[in-house]
Amino acid sequence: MRPVPLVRRGLAALLCAAALGSCGGGDTPYYQGYVEGEFVYVASPVAGRLETLAVRRGQQVAARAPLYALEAVSETAARDQARAQRDAAQARLDDSATGKRPEEVDVNRARLAQAEAAAQRSAAQLVRDEAQLRAGGVSRGQLDDSRAQARADAARVRELRAQLLVDALPGRSALRRAETAETQAADAALAQAEWTLAQTRGVAPAAGLVFDTLYRQGEWVAAGSPVVSLLPPGNVKVRFFVPAAVAGGLRAGQRASVRCEGCGEPVPVRIDYVSTQAEYTPPVIYSRETRDKLVYLVEARPDPADAARLHPGQPVEATLQ
Questions:
Q1: Can you name the residues that pair with 212 across neighbouring β-strands?
Q2: Alpha-carbon distance 1 to 226, whole Å?
Q3: φ, ψ for residue 265, nearest 5 deg
Q4: Three-state secondary structure call for residue 21
Q5: With contact defined as beta carbons under 8 Å apart, do 36 and 239 qualify?
Q6: What is the pLDDT of residues 244-263, one digit of tens each?
Q7: d(C-alpha 243, C-alpha 18), whole Å
């Protein structure tokens, strides 16, 4: 199941009454709040057994770094099958574009040579028989046979010459279109199989902190179930509350700074959201003086270089600039 985000209400209850004005007795008012992380949950759309977990909690990873790998025997076999089917479809398409094989063409050329030789012999025999008929050496029937043989041999020559022309032609246009469509379908099936195989390996969509790992190696991961939660630096933000008198003067892009225990120097932040909806102060800070007052939520983000100094759930004190 998808992990439950950090509980905010308990942190909001830590806000002091000075969220309506200033805390402490100094000249610069500050407003209490907390750090929140917008986590990126890396999941796979396919189910499988977790074969490799390449990261651990608290580790910093670069963009596109490998996070985990699921068992992919079935997906690999499906990819190989789709690739073989694509290669077969492409081979049929290429074959239909080239006509017959050279060896088959050579056979028809040899037959043509034999037919041409036979036609020459029958044509010569016809000339001799015609001369013999005038001299009375052959009968009319024999001359008719010679003429028929000469016509048959000449027709055989024309047939084989036409066959050589046909051998050089590609497949019929309708067949070519069908084979082209078959090849395109095979390409699409291969792309789908490769995509499915790629989904068994999780990579970091952005550089960030591995906030948590949600499965152990060898466990079954359901489709769509997050395996790793990441916290990129740009997804760290500060939430604090200000009274209505202060909220009216705030604007997106305004600079502020936050202090926290163990953070060292104040962390600069930039306001990117001011709520337009008022909220009552948390019950824990109700008092006779403040119970009727309202506060407004403000969200601000640090620069990515400073985000590592802040941790989700950490209480902070914000000062406006």
A1: 229
A2: 8
A3: -65, 150
A4: coil
A5: yes
A6: 889 989 999 999 999 998 88
A7: 9
At 277, phi and psi to the nearest 5? -115, 125
48-53: strand order across its sheet: 201-203, 66-70, 48-53, 220-221
Which amino acid would we find at residue 311?
A: H
User: 224: which DSSP letter?
Assistant: T
Rg of the chain taking only CA atoms, in angstroms: 43
Angle of helix 173-198 relative to helix 73-98, nearest 10 degrees, comes to 160
Tell me the pTM.
0.67
pLDDT block averages, 10 residues each, the chain of length 321: 42 41 61 94 96 96 97 96 94 75 80 89 86 80 86 88 76 76 94 96 96 96 97 95 90 94 92 89 52 80 92 94 87
Helix residue ranges per DSSP H, the chain? 9-12, 73-98, 102-135, 140-167, 173-198, 244-247
Cα–Cα distance for residue pair 140/149, rounded to 1 Å: 14
Kindly report the number of other CB atoms within 10 A of residue 119's CB atom: 20
pLDDT digits (tens, 9 = 90+) for 237-246: 999 999 888 9
Pairing label, strands 236-243, 294-302: antiparallel
Specify whether the CB–CB gap between 86 and 189 falls below 8 A: yes
Q: Mention every residue, 6+ apart, whose C-beta is less than 8 A from residue 225.
A: 1, 2, 43, 214, 215
